Amino acid sequence: MDLDDDRLKFGSRVLGPIQHFSTGMPKGKFQKLIQLDTLYAFDNLIRNPDRGSHKPNLLLREDSAFVIDHEYALEIDVDTLSHFENLDLAGKFSTSHITFPYLSSSKENVKRNYLTCFWNIYEHLTWKT
To answer: How many whole angstroms separate alpha carbon 41 and alpha carbon 47?
Structure first.
């Protein structure tokens, strides 16, 4: 526990034996548990700047992955959705994200399929009648 941070902490579930994500972890270790491209896109959408190497907030079990989001997410202004829809991702929301090295080093034919699941979810959330 970070004693320098006096903000309220809340937990609602004991996860049991978990492993914290660490930089350099083999891609195969966790890619079956979580869609790396969807996590990357979602964090960019909600402007979550703190899923980097110093604070990954990704917990892994043999059968599940858990992402933790808290204090710095939702730094959204009027330009956020426009930038996001134009894939104009920059700075702390882009190359410093824990999934970036894994996503950027993938083969081109794999990259073509990135974000399919995320865009389906996004379109469902933003669909207007």
So the answer is: 10
Q: Is the dihedral of CA 96, 102, 103, 107 positive or negative?
A: positive
Q: Could you identify the residue written with the tokens 């190359």? A: 95
Q: pLDDT tens for residues 110-126?
A: 888 887 888 887 777 76
Q: For 55-91, how does the pLDDT look when each residue is reduced to its tens digit (9 = 90+)?
A: 788 888 888 888 887 666 666 666 766 766 666 665 5
For 24, 67, 68, 72, 98, the CA distances from 60, given in Å and listed in that order, are 15, 9, 11, 22, 14
CA distance 45 to 29: 25
Provide the 3-class DSSP secondary structure of residue 52.
strand
d(CA 112, CA 123) in angstroms, rounded, equals 19
